[in-house]
Design brief:
With 290 residues, the protein is of the alpha/beta class. Helix content is 45%, strand content 19%. The chain contains 13 helices and nine strands. An eight-stranded mixed barrel has the order 1-2-4-5-6-7-8-9. Helix 10 links the parallel strand 7 and strand 8. Helix 2 packs across helix 4 and helix 5 packs parallel to helix 7. The longest helix has 20 residues. Bound molecules: ligand C2E and magnesium ion (3 copies). It comes from Rhizobium chutanense. This is GGDEF-domain containing protein.
Length: 290
Amino acid sequence: DYALYHGKRTKRGKAVLFSSDHDAEIRRDAKIEQVLQMANLQEELSVVFQPIVDVRLDETVGFEALARWTSPVLGNVPPAQFIPVAERAGFINRITRPLLEKALAVAANWPTGIRLSFNLSAQDLTSPEGLLHLISIIHASRFDPKRLELEITETAFAADFGQIQSAITALKALGCGISLDDFGIGYSSLSRLHALPLTKIKIDRSFVTDLHEKPASYKIVKSLLALGRDMGLDCVIEGVETREELAVLRELGGFLIQGYFYSRPMRESDIPAFLNLRPNVSRRHHAHLH
Ligand code: C2E
Ligand code: MG
Ligand code: MG
Ligand code: MG
């Protein structure tokens, strides 16, 4: 595996302590960029889907689409490595567009109560033509934009806030939900959050790990959930791996759960079995009423 061989899987932005590691990372990213430039991304990119479960009724409410790249040259390269490279090199749209098409085509076959979440980069939103292209992909699909949630991270606001704001407003007007991803680790001010038409926040997984025995994490999750409630937003909690974490989150009123506890990201073909196990009960009931 290229990623394992060529060094550590650092989280984006994490400080690199040793210059030799740093050099290795720079060389690795240069190689990734070079291979990405030449890649047939339509062919080499695929999408996996991780379920989001409402624990109150034990029902699936949606899936998040996550990018996978299998390069004939490098093997499997994780998104935490190739997405930032493509962003820096200025061609993230070559990744976003085919992935969005693939994800929408899969999601179009799901029961109507199931939503699709899709990650966007700041750069997907900062050019008017780029935004129009995304909107045309959404319209060309057989998927109702009201069932689509677009995820952005706070780091997107470092770009051009006004431009991001108007792009998000346009997507919201199509009926899409707007989720703030990795909530809690960013640097944006709360007043900026209020200036965006958000519908959901996703609490970052770094606060969830062992929160039942980490008072600091516990307090942070508690206040982020309270903040979300005050803002009238749904909160998804990411990275839930254990029964213990889940129990504490339920107690705190965190009900929308995404994490290995329920499932790792899965291929399209595994989705029907998961939905059989945890169908969307309330929406199905709803459909019978109307
Ligand atoms: P994200 O959007 O915050 O996605 C959640 C990440 O957490 C995924 O990693 C998922 O596999 C992982 N995860 C979920 N539950 C657990 C858990 O219980 N334990 C652990 N250890 N990990 C868990 P993944 O698929 O490697 O993606 C990493 C990041 O790459 C994503 O973070 C997102 O920022 C970015 N990304 C992935 N696909 C796309 C894409 O299509 N477009 C863009 N712009 N970014 C993407
Ligand atoms: Mg996400
Ligand atoms: Mg996240
Ligand atoms: Mg992320």
